[in-house]
């Protein structure tokens, strides 16, 4: 991710999008979750190697997250103001009137009218769109370098969705932060993203710029994902679903994890790790698929589609 840019993480429910975000924030419950492996690099630091005390300084301050459901993310027994003031105290070192003024400013920035009086509201006194704006205000109070937005518009109606996306785009432009947008809505991806990672069964199966993904979708799963969208040209109610079901997290297939559902399956797809193939020299576009290994068998499969 780069400052001022939006990376979209897309895929069907259960593919690991939210778990990826929670791993970055180091808020996965362990157990039952396993301890994350590898590296998560932020400004030269591996977040997975930091102590919990060091991580608390970054979490919510330098890296903030908007959760999928604002109803469950906000504490129902505390006022909006007390929850915002707590963020100002923990991460900005502000107390008393300074903390209250910073909370009011945050609500103004996300377009909430009469923010001084709204500080005394409880979450149940606000609509879904208002609660989502409060979550965005809370995430942006510390002006983070990275904002993780997990399905930020899922629970909202279409009009409020557009308002929230416009707000995120405006605040990103003004503050220059990087955004990790988690979604399964391709319309939101087309509107918001600079780069895209497509996930399937806890793996990134294709990545590239938003133009590369939309104009030259390459992995069979990505193609199936796009074809399964509603299309006004099709008969009403007709959807082209991907055959089969998502594998259980405890029984991933050997080889390519998508091969039991893939229309291009070859014998080599059933064994071993699948590498990432770069589709055009010098481009960001990569696909984890044997169709692009340059072999005669793969070329014939591509030509036959």
Output the keywords.
single chain; 305 residues; Rossmann fold; 2 domains; eight-stranded mixed β-sheet; 10 strands; 13% strand; elongated
**Tell me, what is the CATH class of the largest domain?**
Alpha Beta
Total number of domains: 2
The run of helices and strands is EHEEHEHHHHHEHEHEEHHEEH
- Quickly give the CATH architecture of the largest domain: 3-Layer(aba) Sandwich
CATH topology type of the largest domain? Rossmann fold
Low-confidence stretches: none
| Proportion of beta-strand residues | 5-15%
Mean pLDDT: 89
Strand order of the largest sheet: 4-5-6-1-7-8-10-9
Gross morphology: elongated
Share of helix, binned: 25-40%
Cα Rg:
21 Å
The number of helical segments is: 12
Specify the CATH homologous superfamily of the largest domain: P-loop containing nucleotide triphosphate hydrolases
Alpha-beta content class = alpha/beta
Q: How many strands, which pairing sense, and closed or not: the largest β-sheet? A: 8 strands, mixed
| Distance linking N and C termini | 34 Å
Number of strands: 10
């Amino acid at each position: 991710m780069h400052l001022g840019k939006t990376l979209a993480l897309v895929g069907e429910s259960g593919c690991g999008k939210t778990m990826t975000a929670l791993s970055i924030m180091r808020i996965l419950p362990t157990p039952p979750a396993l301890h994350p492996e590898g590296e998560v690099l932020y400004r030269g630091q591996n977040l997975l190697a930091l102590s919990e005390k060091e991580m608390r300084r970054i979490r919510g301050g330098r890296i903030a997250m908007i959760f999928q459901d604002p109803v469950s993310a906000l504490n129902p027994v505390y006022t909006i103001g007390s929850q915002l003031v707590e963020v100002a105290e923990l991460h900005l070192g502000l107390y008393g009137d300074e903390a209250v003024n910073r909370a009011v400013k945050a609500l103004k920035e996300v377009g909430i009218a009469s923010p001084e009086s709204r500080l005394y509201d409880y979450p149940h006194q606000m609509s879904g769109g208002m609660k989502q704006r409060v979550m965005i205000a809370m995430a942006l109070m510390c002006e983070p370098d990275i904002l993780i937005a997990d399905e930020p518009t899922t629970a909202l109606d279409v009009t409020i969705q557009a308002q929230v996306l416009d707000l995120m785009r405006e605040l990103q432009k003004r503050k220059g932060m990087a955004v990790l947008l988690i979604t399964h809505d391709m319309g939101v991806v087309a509107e918001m993203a600079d780069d895209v990672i497509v996930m399937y069964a806890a793996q990134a199966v294709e990545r590239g710029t938003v133009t590369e993904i939309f104009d030259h979708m390459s992995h069979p799963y990505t193609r199936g994902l796009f074809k399964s969208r509603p299309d006004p040209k099709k008969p009403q109610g007709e959807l082209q679903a991907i055959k089969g079901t998502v594998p259980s997290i405890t029984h991933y297939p050997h080889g390519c994890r998508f091969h039991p559902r893939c229309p291009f399956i070859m014998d080599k797809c059933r064994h071993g790790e699948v590498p990432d193939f770069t589709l055009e020299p010098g481009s960001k576009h990569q696909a984890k698929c044997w169709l692009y290994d340059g072999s005669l068998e793969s070329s014939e499969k591509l030509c036959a589609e």
